[in-house]
Amino acid sequence: MWPWEHLVFGYVLYSLANRAAWETPIGDAAGVTLAVMTQVPDLVDKTLSWTFGVVTTGYGPAHSLLVGAPLVGVLAAALWTRNRAKLAVAAVAGYGSHLVGDLLALRANGPNVGRLLWPLAPQEPYSNDLGFVQRFTEYFQTFLYQMLRPENTGLVVGYAAVFGMVVLLWVLDGTPGLRWARRAAGLRR
């Protein structure tokens, strides 16, 4: 899944959980925590593989139920015990949604549990040795090529509709994270 797809998937799950549990708007801290945690597995493992060659594929310790998941559990427990339950749930929802998305991998050869069992289930190494930018560029070009093919017009319309609905959900949730981003960028209203 692409970074924005992980973000959208995690956001929908967290928004639903937040509405069920707290019925309050999602705060900036929870929104930012969720956004970061939806990206952590790829930020760690893609860098370890594509930049440093430490793991053979982009699925390594951060994607692992044996390594990454317990660390996120410790983080969430620490947040929970400090009365930061919403941040704990955001961390778990963001990280967990990433793993579920990669497990399902609906566009990439279907479900694959082995991606989440590093180091017990080694993945087939890449057939070529590309750096981070080259590999990302190659994947993105393939994605664009597929999205621009006329036979995929329905897919593109559905893809855009899903993103539009999630943006609407985000607005209804009070645009969590936007105030934080404005402060971080030095912009004030």
General shape: globular
Extract low-pLDDT stretches: none
Count of helices? Answer: 7
Our estimate of the beta-strand percent is: under 5%
Structural class: mainly alpha
| Helical amount | 55-70%
Descriptive notes:
With 189 residues, the chain is an all-alpha fold. Helix 1 packs across helix 4. It is globular and about 50 Å long. It starts with a helix and ends with a helix.
Name some characteristics of this structure:
single chain; 189 residues; mainly alpha; 0% strand
Q: Helices and strands in order, then pairings?
A:
Elements: H1 3-21, H2 28-51, H3 68-81, H4 85-104, H5 132-148, H6 153-172, H7 178-185
Helix pairs in contact: 1-2, 1-4, 1-6, 2-4, 3-4
In brief:
With 189 residues, the chain is mainly alpha-helical. Helices cover 65% and strands 0% of the residues. It contains seven helices and no strands.
